[in-house]
């Protein structure tokens, strides 16, 4: 590594709070499915900023739309209307089938809003507080206090107790474990349609339907977190749309703005009319004209470039290729996932495989210690999968050799 890159990294480590163990690379620009570091080295990107840059880097139409909006206005306030937000909300309703939209700046904030929505809904029903939320083990919903409270990873929560309270945990795809946590105080059941950080566990159709029925029977809100698995990543705009059910509240972020920080929580008309009202919730930046211009262009480009069809095709291909690795290597145990949200489960930590891949110009990321997660740009092609496979195979071979 040249001194220059190392010098920048040293500077970073003096200034930034050390909340990440970062890979030893400084990225400077991107083009399509490739990233370039400050020394000009090219990397094939199978992370896309963790499921964010769905359209690939330096998409000209996207970039131009942002520039155009910057020349008009970047920010006003939610006390006024603005055209990009109106358009983005309308489009989000169309693609999701939900009725009401609140724009946030991040995924965690969308979760916060969903939690407040559920508590207010229950409060308006029975006039009491102390309502409970059922969340899942191995879930991830973000790092703010509310989002952390529903995140099923005790290690993330421990030092920050007390959490918001009245959260009970069950197991994804184990309906009885959910039922066992229901009380008269339950106001919401919350889970990711496909668990991301927790290890790429897709919810089953049977589980989704049973939870939906339970929620209907007891007027409990079903909240689906689509922050990672949504926005086309599994082949439908939102992952739950495969299952013939609909949530009462859902959250979306990550690829929604393709890099401009924006998220949203959405709800049905019924929930909208019976939960958060004027004065209950707010945000300075949320849904500002720049962020919403990004959403509008992202959704337009999804259609124009037929991103969903590409996910179906290339996702299936990626799945088949990863299945080959399960057959080929003893240390590769299993492949899990849907579309372009895939996980490869190893019998050992994957850190050194990922580092090795970086050296060879392939960007990968883990989910937990033993799983490599594949969340490439949604415009990735089969030939990129082939290129990825060449490097990955090599890196797994080396890792296996080392262990022996
Ligand atoms: C990333 C993520 C979040 C948190 O989003 P931030 O924008 O980082 O706050 C919440 N839920 C899921 C499923 C995520 O993948």
In short:
With 404 residues, the protein is of the alpha/beta class. It is 41% helix and 18% strand.
3D structure, described in words:
Helix content is 41%, strand content 18%. The protein has helices at residues 3-15, 48-51, 60-72, 83-96, 107-126, 145-149, 154-157, 175-179, 205-218, 269-273, 289-304, 307-328, 351-359, 382-403; strands spanning 27-31, 34-37, 42-45, 100-104, 132-136, 167-170, 186-192, 194-195, 201-202, 221-225, 249-252, 263-267, 332-338, 341-346, 362-363, 365-366, 371-374. The chain has a 7-stranded mixed sheet, with helices on both faces. A 4-stranded mixed sheet has the order 1-2-3-15. Strands 13-14-17-16 form a 4-stranded antiparallel sheet, covered by helices on one side. Strand 16 and strand 17 form a beta hairpin. It is globular. Pyridoxal-5'-phosphate (PLP) binds at residues 106-108, 111, 140-142, 192, 196-197, 225, 227-228, 253-254.
Q: Give the low-pLDDT segments.
A: none
- Total strand count, please? 17
Mean pLDDT: 97
Measured by DSSP, the beta-strand proportion falls in: 15-25%
Structural class: alpha/beta
How much is the radius of gyration in Å?
21 Å
């Amino acid at each position: 590594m040249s001194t220059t890159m190392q010098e920048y990294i040293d500077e970073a480590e003096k200034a930034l709070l050390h909340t990440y163990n970062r890979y030893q690379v400084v990225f400077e620009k991107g083009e399509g499915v490739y990233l370039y570091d400050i020394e000009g080295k090219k990397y094939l990107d199978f992370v896309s900023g963790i499921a964010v840059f769905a359209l690939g880097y330096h998409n000209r139409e996207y970039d131009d739309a942002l520039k155009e909006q910057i020349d008009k206005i970047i920010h006003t306030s939610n006390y006024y209307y603005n055209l990009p937000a109106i358009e983005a909300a309308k489009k989000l309703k169309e693609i999701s089938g939900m009725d009401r939209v609140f724009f946030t700046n991040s995924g965690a904030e969308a979760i916060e809003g969903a939690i407040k929505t559920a508590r207010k809904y229950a409060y308006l029903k029975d006039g009491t507080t102390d309502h409970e939320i059922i969340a899942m083990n191995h879930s991830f919903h973000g790092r703010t206090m509310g989002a952390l409270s529903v995140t099923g990873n005790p290690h993330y929560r421990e030092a920050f107790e007390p959490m918001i309270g009245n959260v009970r945990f069950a197991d994804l795809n184990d309906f009885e474990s959910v039922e066992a946590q229901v009380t008269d105080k339950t106001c919401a059941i919350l889970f990711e349609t496909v668990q991301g950080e927790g290890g790429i566990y897709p919810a089953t159709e049977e589980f989704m339907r049973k939870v939906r029925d339970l929620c209907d029977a007891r007027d409990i809100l079903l909240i689906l977190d689509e922050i990672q698995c949504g926005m086309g990543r599994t082949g439908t705009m939102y992952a739950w749309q495969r299952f013939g059910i609909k949530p009462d509240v859902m959250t979306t972020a990550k690829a929604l703005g393709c890099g401009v920080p924006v998220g949203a929580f959405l709800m049905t008309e019924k929930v909208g009319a019976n939960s958060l009202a004027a004065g209950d919730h707010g945000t300075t930046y949320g849904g500002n004209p720049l962020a919403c211009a990004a959403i509008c262009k992202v959704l337009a480009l999804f259609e124009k470039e037929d991103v969903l069809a590409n996910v179906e095709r290339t996702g299936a291909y990626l799945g088949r290729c990863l299945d080959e690795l399960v057959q080929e290597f003893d240390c590769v145990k299993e492949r899990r996932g849907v579309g372009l949200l895939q996980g490869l489960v190893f019998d050992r930590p994957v850190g050194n495989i990922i580092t090795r891949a970086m050296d060879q110009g392939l960007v990968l990321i883990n989910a937990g210690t033993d799983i490599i997660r594949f969340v490439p740009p949604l415009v990735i092609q089969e030939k990129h999968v082939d290129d990825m496979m060449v490097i990955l195979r090599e890196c797994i071979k080396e890792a296996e050799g080392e262990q022996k």
